[in-house]
Write a structure and sequence with these properties.
The protein is about 30% helix and about 20% strand. It is an alpha/beta fold. About 45% of the residues are buried.
């Protein structure tokens, strides 16, 4: 009898990576058998939605090998990205939050010493990992994996291929054994910046490198408007001009053109701080291309995304809701979000989109793991 492979899910948040690996009925899915996160609100959401999965609340550095059950086939780590994000201060993996990767890697080394090393390791992070620390962070991660005997490769996957959200993320995949592999880099998952980062790696790591192959998904036919609440159910701002007035010239033109069209156009917008003539200025940046901007956590002045609807010669503005953010991450309607909007937005803004993980699992992770037979 064949059984599904198992996984540990570190920095699990609300368990979105596990939902993608499980595949919602996918025969070749991967089942999470242990999860960990240090955020209490996310932990409550995880336990509420995955009551059957053993969960440990706490810093990854506090975990011991005794906390980890059995021998996993895969270990997933969506380690904190704030210190390597292109939107952050770029302190790199030596900083406290992103340095949590090394707390995770300590456990992987311990499992190897006990003969329990997973056959596949996945690190999910922002694309800033490719260049943070002048490329040293990416090199350090790949070197650690290669020295542990893994074939190492990476893919840049944008959620926009599956859902109406612009959200590029980096997936570093380490496999002991073979996996679907291409002869060289190929679009769309091996971007020019990934190719450049791979070329800067030490020779020993490049010798262990694999250009993992993944099928390109069919063209997405879902847009932002399809995932939003009906206009009549939304909580619109009383004074939209107070927000729209922050738009710079180019974005003001976009808004004016959308209003002048007379038809319904739905956009997404963020407030951001820009430097103009040496002065910090808050600006509204809006897009009407059917995509939401990359979801962010509710920390910082530009993190709450707005919905802008232009129709019948006027523009209305409101804030994106937690449930709408959940849809933009591919969560089902029955997923139980935190009751607080702030906590719901933090959970989704820190997470990995479910369909992206599902595609990675179906196209690469499950084929690499192969069938597994139960002990007689």
């Amino acid at each position: 009898m064949t059984i599904r492979p198992t996984a540990y899910e570190f920095f699990a948040g609300g368990g979105l990576a596990g939902l993608g690996m499980a595949g919602l009925g996918m025969a070749a899915g991967i089942d999470t058998v242990f999860a960990n996160d240090m955020d209490p609100a996310k932990a409550r959401a995880f336990v509420s939605n995955h009551p059957h999965i053993p969960f440990r609340l706490g810093d990854v550095w506090s975990l011991t090998l005794d906390d980890l059950p059995g021998r996993p086939d895969l270990a997933w780590a969506s380690s904190p990205c704030q210190d390597v994000s292109l939107a952050g201060a770029r302190a790199g993996l030596e900083a406290g939050r992103s340095g949590a990767f090394w707390g995770f890697w300590r456990l992987m080394q311990g499992l190897a010493d006990q003969g329990r090393a997973p056959r596949v390791i996945v690190l999910e992070n922002v694309i800033g990992l490719l260049t943070s620390g002048q490329g040293r962070d990416f090199a350090a991660v790949c070197t650690a994996m290669a020295q542990a005997g893994y074939r190492v490769g990476a893919l840049e996957m944008d959620t926009a291929l599956w859902l109406p959200q612009s959200r590029p993320r980096l997936f570093v995949v380490a496999i002991k054994g073979a996996g679907p592999e291409a002869a060289g880099p190929a679009a769309p998952f091996h971007s020019p910046r990934l190719v450049a980062a791979q070329a800067r790696l030490p020779q020993a790591v490049r010798d262990a490198w694999a250009w993992w192959s993944l099928p390109v998904p069919p063209k997405r036919n879902l847009d932002l408007a399809a995932l939003l609440e009906p206009d009549e159910a939304a909580d619109w701002l009383d004074d939209p001009q107070a927000i729209l007035a922050l738009a710079g010239p180019a974005h003001r033109v976009r808004i004016d053109q959308a209003v002048a069209s007379g038809g319904r156009q739905v956009g997404a917008a963020y407030r951001r701080v820009r430097i103009e003539n040496g002065v910090k200025v808050q600006r509204l940046e809006v897009r009407f291309d059917g995509l939401a901007g990359c979801l962010r956590t509710p920390a910082g002045g530009s993190s709450r995304q707005y919905v802008v609807v232009c129709d019948q010669g006027r523009a209305r503005v409101r804030r994106l809701t937690g449930r709408e953010a959940a849809r933009l991450m591919g969560l089902p309607e029955d997923y139980r979000l935190p009751s607080s909007e702030s906590a719901a937005l933090k959970l989704t803004g820190d997470a990995v989109a479910v369909p992206v993980v599902r595609a990675l699992t179906e196209g690469l992770l499950s084929p690499a793991l192969g069938p597994r037979r139960a002990a007689a």
